[in-house]
Specification:
mainly alpha, 8 helices, about 60% helix, extended
Length: about 230
């Protein structure tokens, strides 16, 4: 059904739309533009950043489709295959290096020590702990002995529990004493020391709680020896 005057309205709407498109998208030189005059850069090529990244990365190898291809790729990355004699020689050399490093660490060589054990301040703290008799070092053997006694004779559990509590209190007091002693003597010997007493005290208490023959590095001083 046609209404009167509709063709005239459609013609006017099409004319106004064409004029709006020309005003918004076309400038005087025929280039694309926006309503505010901002020119959009032509596309058709990647940005410089993407191009540089693609050149740096290079081609990516396709993923292996089967387990055989994966094994072959792992073998190629490992390099040439060694013979049995060469593997034995390499294993012996590796064991020798590990044993040498461990021996130097136990002897106190600063280059082979862990980061927590390095430095003259930590060495001095170890000497202070090793030169005294520490009640903390009896914790593990005494605890194991009391546990075996409790398992063998359950009737004495009533008496062992208070003894364990008393022993733990004495060990805590001994740990505080050795930590304070190490902090005070380290400050006197090394006035420029910037390490906190809290960390140094924890380090000393941790070493004191270990049995003497199991300490690493090995003790360099005898029990009762006086330190400068």
């Amino acid at each position: 059904m046609k209404l009167p005057g509709r063709r005239r309205d459609e013609a006017q709407s099409a004319a106004s739309a064409d004029s709006l498109v020309e005003a918004v998208y076309l400038d005087g030189a025929g280039g694309p533009t926006s309503a505010r005059g901002a020119v959009t850069a032509p596309k058709g090529r990647p940005t410089p950043k993407r191009s540089a990244t693609a050149k740096r990365r290079g081609p990516v190898a396709p993923a292996p489709m089967t387990s055989a291809e994966a094994r072959a790729r792992r073998k190629s990355l490992k390099g040439p295959k060694l013979s049995k004699e060469e593997r034995q020689v390499a294993k012996a050399q590796r064991r020798e290096r590990i044993a040498d490093r461990r021996e130097r660490m136990l002897a106190g060589d600063d280059s082979a020590l862990l980061e927590r054990d390095r430095g003259p301040v930590r060495r001095y703290a170890r000497d202070i702990v090793d030169s005294r008799r520490n009640l903390l070092g009896l914790f593990m053997p005494v605890a194991l002995g009391l546990m075996f006694i409790m398992i063998a004779v359950p009737q004495v559990q009533y008496y062992i529990s208070p003894a364990m509590m008393l022993l733990m209190v004495l060990m805590a007091v001994d740990g505080v004493m050795v930590a304070r002693k190490v902090g005070r003597m380290a400050d006197e010997k090394f006035p420029d020391n910037v390490e906190s007493r809290w960390k140094l005290g924890l380090y000393a208490a941790s070493r004191a709680s270990t049995v003497r023959r199991m300490r690493a590095p090995r003790p360099q001083v005898r029990r009762g020896e006086r330190l400068d």
